[in-house]
Design goal:
The protein contains twelve helices and seven strands. The chain is an alpha+beta fold.
Length: about 525
């Protein structure tokens, strides 16, 4: 055993306080989680800001292209087409002087008005700077063309305007429109480039967010593994070593303050368990020594009882023999008191001989299990009943043996047990009532329960424990003969076979003795 295992409680408490003081140098889990939460919040804020900027740029570029530059270019192209239709209609009318050639001119005027209004509306959004000025230049050129050329042609003025002048005026309209279209094309291309840039920026932001997220998760995983999982795993390994029996190995934990504290608690528990284990081992050693001493003492006592009983047999036989000779030779020749004294001596010698024989039998029980065999308890009970046949005939009694199991035991001891219990059922009967003794059995788990019931005088429940104590009697010898060893011997035989014996409740008159015997191992395994 190491010096650590012998550490007294006060020193182990100081060691625990020292470990807790060392643990305070480490960050607690609350601080670690707070730092992790702060980093996660900062990461989320960065993600939100970058994502918001990228989406805002993409939305602005989309609005500039889809809602402003694109529609404005389309409207300008339709405006150019409307002005060309007007020029075509006027030129056709001037040549043919027919009213149906004015339809393109009228449709062009309507379309022109619609497109100009639409362009004015787009210009009002502020996303197309200079559109109003370019649109004004187109409108002035178109108005000059209508005033100086188209109007007189349509009015049928004699001599009419010079066609060359009309073509020159419309070229100014065409030039103004082309300038506006070119500017709008530039605006549309700029919007397209802007949306491509915004899309690229959004992609870059997405990749950056994914990279940051992956880096954060990897860093969090590494930190969690190094800061919590590895210390917990190391602590678990040390605890398992203690649980598997190596309680001498000290438990040391690292990592956050809480895990260090947990390790200190486990170490304190280990030291407590080690002290309890040392105490238990010491107690077991003392118990083993006491058991060996008790076993040796029991052997000495059994040997003493056997030797003493055996050595008492010879002088007792002489005393008994001479007392019987005196009784036979001088019976009726002396006075009544002398005959009474001789009868007392003969009876005392007989009882002493029976007592010594019972003590010899009691001392022999439990010496060895070498005589254990598988035996039919029914046959053993029948042999016991046959041994008690004279007593049964004398009392005009009945012994009813039910179906009994096969058990493992000493045949002589079990027969002595049944002779004792059956004999008690015949002996302790009520006056004028023929004794009836019944033997039955049932299986209860891994044991057979055997009951021997009679219709005799019965035993009060308050004496149910006393009757199994050696030399304890409930009746005088003049009423029921015996040595007071019978039920004590029965208890010793039953317990020697691994069972238990007691008195069961009896609904009517009589007594029911109940004892158990183990089911043979072969039958349990089957």
């Amino acid at each position: 055993m190491t010096a650590l295992d012998r550490t007294p409680p006060e020193r182990s408490g100081e060691a625990r306080l020292q470990r807790l003081e060392e643990g305070r140098k480490h960050w607690p889990l609350a601080r670690i989680f707070a730092l992790g939460a702060s980093l996660a919040a900062l990461f989320a804020l960065v993600v939100v800001v970058l994502g918001g900027v990228a989406l805002w740029r993409l939305a602005e570029a989309r609005i500039a292209l889809v809602d402003s530059a694109g529609p404005a270019l389309i409207a300008a192209q339709q405006l150019s087409t409307a002005l060309v239709d007007q020029e075509t209609g006027v030129r056709g009318y001037s040549l043919a002087q027919r009213a149906e050639f004015l339809q393109p001119y009228q449709d062009g005027r309507t379309t022109e008005a619609e497109m100009v209004a639409h362009l004015r509306e787009l210009a009002a959004g502020g996303r197309l700077p200079g559109l109003d000025g370019r649109l004004d230049a187109v409108e002035r050129a178109a108005q000059d063309w209508r005033t100086e050329y188209a109007g007189p042609v349509l009015a049928g003025t004699p001599g009419g305007p010079d066609p060359e002048r009309g073509r020159a005026l419309f070229e100014q309209v065409r030039s103004a429109v082309q300038t506006m279209l070119a500017d709008l094309q530039v605006e549309r291309e700029a919007a397209r480039v802007s949306i491509e840039g915004a899309s690229a920026f959004l992609l870059v932001v997405g990749v950056a967010i994914a990279a940051l997220l992956a880096s954060f998760l990897v860093a969090a995983g590494i930190g969690l593994r190094r800061g919590m999982l590895r210390p917990l795993s190391d602590l678990a390994v040390q605890v398992r070593e203690v649980v598997t029996g190596d309680a001498t190995q000290p438990v040391r934990a690292g990592g956050p303050r809480e895990i260090v504290g947990l390790g200190a608690d486990v170490e304190a528990m280990r030291q407590h368990i080690q002290r309890d284990l040392d105490d238990a081992q010491a107690a077991n050693r003392r118990l083993d020594e006491q058991a060996r001493e008790l076993e040796r003492s029991n052997r000495d006592l059994e040997q003493f009882a056997y030797v003493a009983s055996h050595d008492l047999q010879e002088p007792l036989r002489k005393v008994s023999s001479f007392c019987q000779l005196l009784q036979r030779r001088y019976a009726g020749k002396l006075d009544d008191r002398a005959d009474q004294y001789i009868a007392f001596a003969v009876d005392g010698a007989s009882r002493m001989q029976r007592l010594i024989n019972d003590l010899l039998t009691f001392s022999r029980v439990g010496r060895t299990t070498e005589n254990f065999v598988a035996l039919d308890l029914g046959e053993t009970a029948a042999a016991a009943a046959a041994q008690l046949e004279p007593a049964r005939e004398e009392s005009d009694g009945e012994i009813d043996i039910g179906e009994l199991p096969v058990v493992a035991g000493d045949p002589a001891l079990l027969q002595a047990l049944l002779v004792n219990l059956l004999g008690n059922g015949l002996k302790f009967h009520r006056a004028g009532v023929a004794p009836v003794v019944r033997v039955a059995s049932r299986r209860d788990g891994d044991s057979f329960e055997i009951t021997i019931s009679d219709n005799g005088i019965g035993i009060e429940s308050e004496y149910s424990g006393k009757v199994f104590v050696i030399f304890q009697r409930l009746h005088g010898r003049d009423v029921y003969p015996g040595t007071g060893i019978g039920l004590a011997l029965a208890k010793k035989i039953v317990e020697f076979h691994g069972g238990r014996i007691d008195l069961a409740d009896t609904p009517g008159p009589g007594t029911t003795v109940r004892f158990t015997l183990p089911v043979p191992r072969e039958e349990i395994d089957a």
